[in-house]
Amino acid sequence: MGGTAVVVGGGIGGLAAAIGLRRIGWEVTVVERAATLGDAGAGISLAANGLRALDELGVGKAVRDASRGQYSGGTRTPEGGWLARMDGAVLERAVGTPIMGIPRSTLHRLLRESLPAEALLIGSAAAVGQAGPGTVRVDCGDTVLDADLVVAADGIGSKVRELLFPAHPGPVHSGSTVLRAITEQPVGLRTDFELTWGRGAEFGHIAFHDGRAEWHAVLSLPAGTRFPDPLAELRRRFRTWHDPIPALLDATRPGDVLHHDVNELRTPLPSFAVGRIALLGDAAHAMTPNLGQGACQALEDAVSLAAALSAESTVEAALTRYDAERRPRSQEVARAARQAGRMGQQLSHPLAVALRNTAMRLTPSRAAMRMILRHHAWVPPRLN
After folding, report:
1. What CATH number corresponds to the domain at position 166?
2. Which tens digit of pLDDT belongs to each residue from 137-166?
3. Cα–Cα distance between 288 and 266 in angstroms, integer?
4. Does residue 235 lie in a domain region?
5. What are 342-350's contacts with CB under 8 Å, separation 24+?
6. 100-103 and 213-220: which strand pairing?
7. Cα atoms found within 13 Å of the Cα of residue 66, Cβ hemisphere only
């Protein structure tokens, strides 16, 4: 089965969906309201499931070549003590690859370069409506597109999701806010990846292959909290935390710090598909970042959608299959991510933090590996 598709949203999930659809013979237009595509943001970790999806889309090698494997690191206390060590070599033996760290803008560029320029309609807002039996119309201002399929990959604030499910409460604040940046220059790091958990705060870093690093700071704060000088505020809050946290902050330009509230779709959607419209990525299952699975789940969505369309004889049957395959898994991962946040950075009572830390130190490495494999050991369907 082939046809014409419009992907609303030019982020990682939307571009991946377009690549997958083109690989099975569909004509695809990606509509993105931003005037420029995806060269902003900090860093991203890609687990085995996301990398396997990229392999199936034909861009896995390029992404690996631009990434750095996370072989060393783990979770620490603010004083520097280890709660859990990470052994990327063990994970690689279990699933075939370590977790890989890459700048988000680099990943976005590699996906974008896998599509022809004429498939991208940039700087256009999309309004979705019914054109006739078996056709969805997307109004992009001066351009009107009629399609056999619309893929809504328009993010956590998805307008298409609001259209399909007007009674759904939409995204809610998780109780946390995140500040993050990529260092201006290389930083001497002894590990590839670290998380440090304090009381109501987390600081982490991802090392890149060029020596620079992404860092993030997650704070338990009300929605809308902002600071006149974010970098100065972080230096104040984390001034007593272990190295290399101060060095990472010192290697960052103030204007490079991004600050966003952490929101999620806490109320699960009843379906990821209505008629000939499919929801994908954050539009379908926006989750907290505590498991590092947001982008990976969007990549899984993209491959699964293309595979379903390749296997089924009608769009409706394919979307029914896509919903049945993707909704249970992605919503389970979202629940697990929420729980990880509650047991990690969001803990603030000293006794609760002490109990959590003790439990982490006593957890056998094999048990920790089993929890990781629940999410990483996903095998994509083949795109023929």
Report:
1. 3.50.50.60
2. 999 988 999 999 999 999 999 999 999 999
3. 10
4. no
5. 344/195, 344/197, 344/202, 344/290, 345/176, 345/197, 345/200, 345/201, 345/202, 345/218, 345/220, 345/290, 346/175, 346/176, 346/200, 346/220, 347/197, 347/199, 347/200, 348/199, 348/200, 348/220, 349/199, 350/199
6. unpaired
7. 20
Q: Is residue 175 part of a domain?
A: no
Query: How long a stretch of residues is the chain?
Result: 384
Distance of CA 27 to the CA centre of its chain: 26
Q: Which one, of 125, 97, 108, lies nearest residue 41 by Cα?
A: 108
Do the domain assignments include residue 98?
no
Whether pLDDT at 39 is above 60: no
> Any residues with CB less than 8 A from the CB of 348 and at least 6 apart, and which?
199, 200, 220
Q: Is the pLDDT of residue 133 over 80?
A: no
**Rounded to an integer, what distance in angstroms lies between the CA atom of residue 344 and that of residue 332?**
18
The two structure tokens encoding residue 90: 């063990």
Question: Considering its fold, how many domains does the chain have in total?
Answer: 1
Residue position matching structure tokens 């930083």:
187
9: Cβ contacts below 8 Å, ≥ 6 apart: 30, 31, 32, 152, 153, 154, 155, 158, 281, 283
Report pLDDT for 224. Answer: 97
Look at residue 275 and tell me if it is in a domain: yes
pLDDT computed for residue 366 by the predictor? 79
| Residue 123 CB neighbour total at 10 angstroms | 13
pLDDT digits (tens, 9 = 90+) for 167-189: 999 999 999 999 999 999 999 99
Question: 325, 273 in Cβ contact below 8 A?
Answer: no
| 8 phi/psi in degrees, rounded to 5 | -95, 110
Q: Which two tokens stand for residue 279?
A: 């929801």
Residue 10 in contact with residue 120, Cβ under 8 Å? yes
Q: Which residues constitute the domain of residue 109?
A: 4-68+104-170+265-342
